[in-house]
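Weekly modeling sync, notes
Attendees: S.R. (lead), two postdocs, one rotation student

Agenda item 3: backlog of single-chain predictions. S.R. asked that every request posted to the team notebook include the full sequence so nobody has to chase files. The rotation student volunteered to paste the first one in as an example of the format we agreed on. Action items at the bottom.

Example entry:
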Amino acid sequence: MATTKAARTRLTREYKSIQTNPPPYIDAHPSESNILEWHYVITGPEDTPYHNGQYWGTLVFPPNYPFAPPAIRMHTPSGRFQTSTRLCLSISDFHPKSFNPAWEVSTILIGLLSFMTGDESTTGSITSTHAQKKQYAARTRWWNSTGGGSQNSAATKGNVKAGDGGAKFREQWPELHEQNLKWMEENDIDPATGNSRTSGAVAGSSVVDAVVQQRDVGSGWASHNRILIFGSFVFFYVLLARLLNST
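Predicted structure, as returned to the notebook:
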């Protein structure tokens, strides 16, 4: 089914709108060869385990957009979604009857970011710890530009060839790819493995994250139970004083 004039006109207008007024943490553009295929990058917001992560994905719109929603996928491993898998959201093609034609590309991507930073489950989502999400975030730039170090071509999955060595990302985001290469060079990251050549550690060490997580858990317990701790201290102090006086 060919793209309708309404869909082409609407998506062209929305691209101009996003260029003029991009939503926070979000960049997006249509493919040069197919206006129905959009590529987005979400930069992980502060105060989330995704901070500074680079999350690339696609929106594939139906020919009758805006009267039907797009298929939404995230290709970069995040610890939140299955990679290159259609996501079941109220703004995706899983729920065409609930889609509002007034919603735009920016609305859809803001909704995706909101869901990503929450903890609700849906088809296409996965469960991971805060520390694991941080480790994924630290490896996103390496993964996007190298395809996770993969070199073997494979079957197309959601408009991205699994194992394409990062070719699709480089095609759609050449400037980000150059920035990623510079980041890997500055951090001495091996493109084949994502590990630091200097230390041999994986980018975003899980050991450090585990220590931080344990520290946060400990400090959180102490904060929530400070009255109990103080009361116990006073009790033992009084008990010790009485024992000393009795002797």
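Discussion: group reviewed the output briefly. Confidence is low (pLDDT under 50) at residues 152-156, 205-247.
Action items: rotation student to repeat for the remaining queue; S.R. to check formatting next week.
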